[in-house]
Amino acid sequence: MTEPVPLLVPVQVDALVVNDQVRLGENFQRWQANYALTRLRLSPEPPPFSNIDTDFALTPGRGGVYLQWQLPQPLTSGHQNEPDAEITFPLVPNRWLVVRTHGEPGGAQQQQSAWIVESDHLDPVTGSSPYATRDGSLTRIGRRIDLSSGAWTEPGPPEGGLFLTTVGPGVPTFAVYQPYNTNVFSIHDTMDGLDRDRAWTVSYLVVGWYSDPDADPLTASGTSLEDFLADWAIVDRMVLPDRSLYHGTVLGLTWHATGPAPQSPRPDRVEVALGNTSAHAAQEFLQQAEPDGAHGLAALLSACQHGLLDDADEPDAEFKAARTTFTSWFTPTPAGHAWTLEEDPDAPEQPPGVRRRTRRALGTLLTTLNADQAAHDEAARDLAAAQRRLYDLWWAAGLPVIPDYPESEREAGPGSYRADLMNRLRQAEEDTARCEELLAQARAKIPWGRTPDELAASIADKCPVPKGFVLKRDVLPATYRAGEPVVLLRHAKEDQQARLAAQDGLRCRRPGELLTAVYLDSERTQRVSAPDQEVPLPDHLPDPAGLSGLLTALLREFFHLDPANAPALARAAGRPDSDIEALRAAMANPHRQADGTVPALGTTPWRQPWSPLFFQWEVDYYPITYAQGDGIDDPGQANWAFDGNRYQWLGTGADHEPLTLRGRQFLTPTAAQSLADGLRNYAGRGKSPFAQQLRALAEQAGGVDFISQTLDGFNDQLLSRSPNPAVDLGTGSRTRREAVAQEITRGLPPDPGPLTRPFSSWPASRFQQVRSGQFAFTRLNIVDRFGRALPVVIPDELELRDTIGNGTPAHAFRPALPHDVRPGVDADGEPVTVVDRDRGRFVETKPRLPQPARTHLTLLSALDDTRTLDDHTAAEAICAWLVPNHLDRSLLCYAPDGAPLGTVTTSLLPNGSTVTQWQPLPHSLYLDSADLEPDHRHLHDLVTYLLPPRERATLHTLLRGLDRALTTIAPSGDQPPPTTLGRLLGRPLALVRTRVRIDLDGPPYRDPSWQHLIDPSHPEFTDYRWPVRLGERDELGDGLIGYYQERDYTALHTVLDLADLADLDDPATYLRPIDTGHGIALPARPPRDHDATTAAHLTLLLDPYGAVHATTGILPTAELRVAARAFEESLAAITAGFRFGPIITTTAPDDDTTLLLPRPSDRHGTWTWSQPATATTWTDHPTLPVYPLPRLPFPRPVLRTGYLQLQPSEEGPTP
Predict the structure, then answer these.
(1) CA–CA gap between residue 566 and residue 837 (Å, rounded)
(2) 806-835, pLDDT tens digit by residue?
(3) What is the DSSP string of 790-849?
(4) How far apart are CA 974 and CA 1143, in angstroms?
(5) Helix (H, G, I), strand (E, B) or coil at 3
(6) Would you give the DSSP letter of residue 513?
(7) 1102 and 1155 share a domain?
(8) Which of 376, 713, 798, 800 is least surrounded by CB atoms within 10 angstroms?
(9) 839 exposed, middle or buried (CB, 10 Å; 0-12, 13-18, 19+)?
(10) What is the DSSP-derived secondary structure letter of residue 300?
């Protein structure tokens, strides 16, 4: 069997030249991590724009070459074996050889310098970069040893074994931001000893390995090793390697200390757009590029981004796209679960009656289970709120300075605030422990598991169901938190995507594949190779155990790759000087003229790197209060006006003292790439006629230089949270540790604000009840891996310690803004902004709630508004069925199960006048409308208002309004073919009892400022009322015609607008337009805090196959849909009845009970005649159509008054 051999893995090596021109003329934002801050629970990374090395430009010693190597993807990816397990990262190489060759450009001789980097060397004196050990001790890590000073020997593993990973002491950017990892994953070569006034050609070789072979991930076996190697291209996978060696090069760097700054892809100017998502922000760039076709192109790209291309030509596609886009401006958060009973597709077929009986028998189980699940979800929300409270108090109690009460509020002596804070902390810990216990008790009542297998086992154990059915846990509609603004940068020259692409399928080699020669000619006939003894090697070159000779082999390859070695190679190979230039050209083109497998990285000529890593921003935010005074209860008097879809600022309620918000985030190149991927995926599905064009568009989109970045922390800072993340020290009780760990993953720590001052009251709180306002950038820059910065926006009053270099002054900065984030305009077309000057720099944030919430439409029992329903019991929400009769302009009424009740019709009295009456339908027990009250209270109230003494025209107004509204309703989906009832009369409409609320995801967020931390104040935002607009007039799939509020049936609030109602005879104003939805104005509250005044109880009049949409402008549009299985059986039971009489009838010759009538055919069902027998009973007769030829009737014809009814056949129409 072949022995395993080491694997040679290429790494990306970058070299930044910092000569005098670069150091003095360019902007650098370099800072160090301060791990002492972790003892104060603070992040070791400084806040944005602070702790900058301001001496960098002024200190000549900062000059030189900064060399950094980037580890391959498998070494930088964390792994989590269990859902709640800690994320672990693989160990990385801890020994690196760095070899530098330098010489005069075109010179015959190259000199060498070499160093060993001990990346895991720990010592507070001899170490290089700040670091914190596993036990929290502060030290420094990494050292560089010059091999010219003597032989280096392996010092052995540190105590406890190898520990170094790419995140170091827990900082995600430890391995990528060069100032963090000097002499760990980078070196600073000061170029001492080289003449500053001369130019030098410099190249570098970097080689890394594990000092302990057992720490090498390639020592693993089986699946773990195969997974680790999955993304790498390796020849002969039958022989897997057992060691790894990492190597990279920089070739042809030019160093001239006093020379010009090297050319760089770093741009001079960056364009900025801002929106609610990257796709939203890109709209304005498209508008600038294609003013005439931008809307169509933006719609195409948005449809691609949201997976809507397949539906682009469908009815209502525009509405669906608009809703999906608006929803993308929010972040969904889990709202809990509900249980449903589904038919098992793999079970044997059962008769429909058996399935229905089984489903009804399991109704109690499902109702109880969903009640227990709701209790569990509420307990989980309570625990999250308790943990948040505990976290805030824990954080404040650990700050180095805690204020005291202002003297006017101090009841005890000095220090009483700290004592109260510690008491509240203990109480919060007890409350959290109690919530944990309540959650555990609630969880014991429901099937539950961390994995799908555990959940399935728990279902089988706790809730077994009969064969043929499956109990499933469904996710409830999500709650949504307002998304944060997204900045889109164009022309920032992002190279991260190219780096990731280079890592994809990274070609790794075996030692036998190394380069050993070059060919002088492209035909590869003249091989030139230096003998081993002629390859220059640095003094004291180490030979790591198990990697014998590999460093020498890599140096040999390095010698043949570097064009600067052409004279030395010609001399070593005995070639004439005339071949030097040809050799130099051949060495610069290894892919065509090298002998061996060319390394995947590091063979192109050096260029000054520009690799954006950080995005730093600072804004002045001007809050605009949503409402105050009467506007809290009346949205019509708020500072923001709702137009039925969006909010517009009215110019009042602004705070002219801005809040400063700032942040620092990683840059991601996902904007262009995700768009390109979406286009490619769509082109690859099905047989799109535009597949080729879409692929071409994808290639163009993928090449667009876009970087998108969310302003992370923007919303949190408006809730008095700090822009700096917290550090978990893992101390305290289990309850406290878990609360802290959970909250650190959820968001930022609190910012209680400044301390109190003597003889003054509490400082003003920064907590914003609602996120609504305007902001403008005051600073914005891009920082690359080396700390090289590109200022985009600079402060108007520029200070040396802030920034050096170009950038647009804040007052002159104009980001590209799509319509939804632009301030509104006044009558003169000028933006309405908080500050009157430089209006074009402002961005507007529409009103948003401070925490996740949802618009919640719930079906209610028609008999009990306190009883909520799910899909299984949805039929109970139907109050009645209404069928407009087009023939006699009456309104037929049926019970929820389809049984006939009566009709509201207009009758002619003997005196010639007309009156609106209730007339019972055949076999109805409800002879008078008053009889409806006990069993059908909502239908009773509706009918009562249509009858005298009300306005006679109201019935006809309602019928005409229904006709008009139904012209814009044509739901699709699971609707069956048109029914006989619909053909002969009108579409059956359902009266459905519903509740509308705005639910927060749990207890309301509280102000954590010092003033309100001890005793939280009432959250004012829970009192604000928000308009809710129901229905969508022009959307075919929206089935809402209108609704009645509470038990008020004096007016139908309809989706028709004033123009639709203008020509209707409606003296009683029975039909009232929903308009912008101000008829329903609701506060956002936790589910259990709602009462009759904070929720709307409505009776909806709708097409049962359509959805009902609820639009608030502050949350994604909610949808209510009655499951078809809840009503199809009752709908099929409805009989079409036509009132006739008096009409002449005869009986059939052979059956005196069968009436001969002029009636349609029996194709769609069976026609019967019903007429009153007594005041409370009816007589039914089968019918036959009258004979087409004249005949002498026998027996004598009879005048009859009654109903001709059609009962649809179960098999459907006969041919």
Answers:
(1) 63
(2) 789 999 999 999 999 999 999 888 999 999
(3) EEEEE-SS--TTT--S--EEGGG---B--GGGSPPB-TTS-B--SSSSSGGG-EEEEEE-
(4) 41
(5) coil
(6) G
(7) no
(8) 800
(9) middle
(10) H
Residue 1036: left if φ>0, alpha if ψ -120 to 50, beta else—which one? alpha
- Weakest mean pLDDT among 27-31, 853-857, 909-913, 1169-1173: 909-913
Residue 1168 and residue 1053 share a domain: no
Q: For residue 1101, which phi and psi values (nearest 5 degrees)?
A: -110, 115
- Copy the structure tokens of residue 780: 């914005």
- Which residues, other chains included, contact 1043 with Cβ-Cβ below 8 Å and sequence gap of 6+? 994, 1030, 1052, 1053, 1098, 1099, 1100, 1101
> Token digits for 862?
């028609």
Residue 1062 in this model has a pLDDT that exceeds 70: yes
| pLDDT surpassing 50 at residue 565 | yes
Q: Long-range contacts of range 632-640, CB-CB < 8 Å, 24 or more positions apart?
A: 632/1020, 632/1023, 632/1024, 632/1025, 633/1023, 633/1025, 634/1025, 634/1081, 635/1025, 635/1026, 635/1027, 635/1078, 635/1081, 636/1078, 638/1024, 640/772, 640/846, 640/847
414: which 2 tokens?
């000095």
Q: Do residues 341 and 214 both lie within one domain?
A: no
DSSP 937-997: HHHHHHHHHHSTTS-THHHHHHHHHHHHHHTT----SS--SPPHHHHHS---EEEEEEEEE
Going through 276-373 in order, the beta strands assigned E by DSSP cover: 330-333, 337-343
Q: What is the DSSP letter of 26?
A: S
Task: Determine, yes or no, domain membership for 362.
Answer: yes
Q: How confident is the model at residue 1215 (pLDDT cuts 50, 70, 90)?
A: very low
* Segment 346-377, tens digit of pLDDT: 777 777 666 777 777 777 888 899 999 999 99
Rounded Cα gap, residues 872 and 340, in angstroms: 7
Task: Output the average pLDDT for the chain.
Answer: 88
State whether residue 28 is helix, strand or coil. Answer: strand
Alpha-carbon distances, residue 335 vs 192, 304, 342, 480, 855 (angstroms) = 62, 28, 21, 9, 12
Residues belonging to the chain: 1215
**Whether 781 contacts 802, CB under 8 Å:** no
Which residue range is the domain that position 1162 belongs to?
Answer: 1135-1208
- Say whether pLDDT at 804 is over 50: no
Tens digits of residue pLDDT in 572-627: 999 999 999 999 999 999 999 999 999 999 999 999 999 999 999 999 999 999 99
> Do 746 and 739 form a contact (C-beta atoms < 8 A)?
no
Tokens of 674: 């995700």
Note whether residue 906 is domain-resident.
Answer: no
Q: Looking only at Cα atoms, what is the longest distance across the chain? A: 133
Which of 476, 497, 531 is the last residue before a domain boundary?
476
Cβ contact 969:1108 at 8 Å: no
String of DSSP letters for 412-465: SSTTHHHHHHHHHHHHHHHHHHHHHHHHHHHHTTS---SSHHHHHHHHHHH---
Closest CA to 1097 of 859, 853, 854: 859
Do residues 35 and 183 both lie within one domain? yes
The answer on 1073 and 1180 residing in a single domain is: no
How far apart CA 60 and CA 57 sit, in angstroms, is 8
**If pLDDT is split at 50, 70 and 90, which confidence band does 1071 have?**
very high
Q: pLDDT (tens digit, 9 = 90+) per residue, 717-732?
A: 999 998 888 777 666 7
How many angstroms separate the first and last alpha carbons of the chain?
78
Domain-located, residue 840: no
Name the packing angle between helices 352-361 and 363-397 (round to 10°).
50
In sequence order, the β-bridge partners of residue 209 are: 95
Could you say which of 476, 501, 517 is where a domain stops?
A: 476
- Residues 1063 and 1142 occupy one common structural domain: no
How many structural domains compose the chain?
Answer: 4
How many alpha carbons fall within 13 Å on the CB side of residue 609? Answer: 29
Question: Is residue 12 located within the same domain as residue 142?
Answer: yes
Question: Is 38 among the domain residues?
Answer: yes
Looking at the fold, whether 1126 and 1139 belong to one and the same domain comes out as: no
